[in-house]
Amino acid sequence: MDSVEPLDDADRATRMRVLAFFEAGPAILARHPHPVHATASAFVFDAEYRQVLLCFHKKGRFWVQPGGHLEPADATVIDGALREAREETGVEPPAGTAPTIVDVDAHRLSSRFGHCTEHLDIGVAFTADPATALRANDEVEGVRWWPVDALPGDAATGLDARIAKILERLRSR
């Protein structure tokens, strides 16, 4: 997560909070009875960063990047994000590419998510070919590429700002 330079004071505060949570080690994987959960997301873009791959989340009822809870079998946060992308969309990074951590985020959840009230999320980015066959699993109703400057109206709250920050980081590398 050291590669994610905070863009402002709010980013800095979120990063510090998430890092402190993740320092607890394996204990962060426990979901019950804890209301705050550790998650990993995959921000999948086309090679020109003009499109982003989103899925329609059944429980949340919104379009969002693939992602979910870290599992004990995930050796790293990147592994967790790649597993989630594969499970929810069928997409994997091309051979020879190195997905990278690009975002640290904390977001509140609606009552639709039960006892879980917040996700502390690490975002990982990679590119993929939009012609790749997509496959939704049982957690999502659909998977689709969207222009980064024309996200769906029913996207998750704050997704547009989060993607904008990620693109700023990716384009400055």
UniProtKB/TrEMBL annotation:
InterPro entries in the record: NUDIX_hydrolase-like_dom_sf (IPR015797), NUDIX_hydrolase_dom (IPR000086)
SUPFAM superfamilies: Nudix
Source species, domain of life: Bacteria
PROSITE patterns (alphabetical): NUDIX
Domain Nudix hydrolase as annotated: residue spans: 35-172
One Pfam family, short name: NUDIX
Family according to the record: Belongs to the Nudix hydrolase family.
Name this polypeptide is given: NUDIX domain-containing protein
Organism per entry: Herbiconiux aconitum
